[in-house]
Amino acid sequence: MSAVASVRAFVGVGANLGDARVQVLAGIAALRELSGTRVMASSSLYASTPVDAPGPDYVNAVVELDTALPADALLSALQTIESRHGRQRSTLNAPRTLDLDLLLYGTQRSDDPQLTLPHPRLHQRAFVLKPLLEIAPALEAPGLGPLAPWLQRVHGQRTVLLDAKEIPW
Q1: What is the C-alpha to C-alpha distance for residues 57 and 55, in angstroms, rounded to an integer?
Q2: Which entry of 87, 89, 109, 111 is annotated as an active-site residue?
Q3: Over the stretch 122-132, which tens digit does the pLDDT of each residue have?
Q4: What is the per-residue DSSP string for 104-119?
Q5: Residue 66: CA count within 13 A, CB half-sphere
Q6: CA angle 46, 30, 78 (to 5 degrees)
Q7: What sign has the CA pseudo-torsion 87, 27, 63, 43?
Q8: Three-state secondary structure along 137-167?
Q9: Which entry of 52, 84, 99, 112 is annotated as an active-site residue?
Q10: What element of type H or E holds 123?
Q11: Which of 18, 116, 151, 164 has its CA 20 to 30 A from that of 144?
């Protein structure tokens, strides 16, 4: 894996097992420790009802990164963080202690099953769009265009602001 120029990337952070709020904050803290990566912004925390999945409500946030890691290395680092926080990949959409989704990696597009960019459902999930647009209101995604209009299409999905800018940094 060769180094790349610095890239703006967005990561969705979520949890719905254990103390989900603490898990999300720990996940964001772990992102701050990634080599060659700086956290540029983090959203407020949101509560959301699982979509197409069982389990308790989620706590969600989105983090903007400036990273020199290639996309596949960043994804691998995210999965390592998830594992360190007890993430089990038992079934599709199973409840989780920590979920880190690479939503966007610059303007890169990929249809690779291991790394699909932009994240294939980011425009279909209010729990992704609300925190994402909070920190980047004019953001556009490759193949989707401006993301703000997509939020209207998912208005029926329950996503509630918990505490604005609760994250202590």
Answers
A1: 7
A2: 87
A3: 999 999 999 99
A4: EETT--EEETTEEES-
A5: 5
A6: 85
A7: positive
A8: CCCEECCCEECHHHHHCCCCCCEEEEECCCC
A9: 99
A10: none
A11: 164
* Residue 96 appears among annotated catalytic residues: yes
Strands 37-42 and 45-48: unpaired
3-state secondary structure of 121: coil
Catalytic residue check, 87:
yes
- CB-based contacts of 54: which residues, under 8 Å, 6+ apart? 93, 94, 95
Tally Cβ neighbours within 10 Å of residue 105: 27
Cβ contacts of 50 within 8 Å, gap of 6 or more: 16, 56, 57, 58, 93, 95
List, for residues 52-97, the tens digit of each pLDDT value. 877 899 999 999 999 999 999 999 999 999 988 776 666 656 678 8
Taking alpha carbons only, the member of 38, 19, 31 closest to residue 86 is 19
Known catalytic membership, residue 99: yes
Structure tokens at 22: 């603490």
| 112 among known catalytic residues | no
> Could you tell me which of 134, 143, 141 has the C-alpha nearest to residue 162?
134
Task: List residues bridging with 63 in a β-sheet.
Answer: 11, 42
Residues 6+ apart with CB under 8 A from 123: 129, 141, 144, 147, 150, 153
What's the pTM?
A: 0.92
